[in-house]
Amino acid sequence: MTEIFDDLEGMRAEFNDALSGTETPEALQQVKVLFLGKKGKLTSWLKNLGSLPPEERPRAGEAVNSLRDDFESRLADRRVFLEERQSSEVERRSGLDVTLPARGRTWGGIHPVAQLMHDVVEILAGLGFSVALGPEIEDDFHNFEALNIPASHPARDMQDTFYFPDGHLLRTHTSPVQVRSMLAHGAPLRIACPGKVYRKDSDPTHSPMFNQLEGLLVEKDISVADMKGCLEVLMEGIFARPLKARYRGSYFPFTEPSLELDIECVECSGKNPSCRICKGTGWLEVAGLGMVHPNVLRSGGIDPEVFNGFAWGIGLDRLAMLKYGLTDLRVLFDGNVPYLLSGRTFSC
Ligand code: DAH
Question: How many helices (H) does the chain have, and how many strands (E)?
């Protein structure tokens, strides 16, 4: 019986020698096959077990099994050792340190104003409007003249408008796209024009560059009721619920009559006298609008005796602030990603 154990101890020593000489996973595999493979030393030895006297078999079997377990765990340890050595070698050569903590991932998101433009365009597409875009560098004709803005109008003042030395200017509103679209396509026409506009203004509630959404519909027999219906569907779509609306008389050179649209405060619905959004008035001013002035239709090559229509201008940045609960207009332009993304998720 002791011979058997001597034999096994001899095999253990042999295995240890073979194992400590392995330097690669391939060499390790060879040692495994040599001892534990189908024709391996230990496996063959196991087959001899049957020739032992029956009373010796259990102990011998136990000894062989424990040796096999030992070989297997030693092989596994050596594999881990070789793999670690290999990866640290790769790291050393590439300068990569996989033990450094991960940096974390910042997800990008759609800018609130871009998201709002997208939503607005989608709502208006459902009402038959197409998107029209115009140049940000405009001329006096499209930005002012054709919109019935008289030469004496304060908007033309150097104080408000960025002029280029050659007389061109940065458009002060998206309304010139009305004129360009009428001249290009004639009537009937339904267009939505989102885009950047520029004015010499800069304080917590004004930025020298901001975004507007112009709308224009020119057809036959259009009434103020059509205009109200359209704007109310738009507001309801943006805020995803019906909102009370009220209209106040106003003045714009390019519309007659001219109105301003207020919606019920999206924060307090008029219930909080100290509401920070509506300042307790219960109303939020969201759009300028009106029936297109006959002179503007004429500038666009459209006969005002045949066609009429309505137009509106909306400040998209303010609307985005209302929709997403932002408090300072300037964060929209600062590129402060954590602030822009905080607490909001956008679809795309
Ligand atoms: N263009 C105007 C502005 O920038 C906004 C506006 C008001 C546009 C009334 C319109 C309108 O089309 O009908 O202040």
Answer: 12, 9
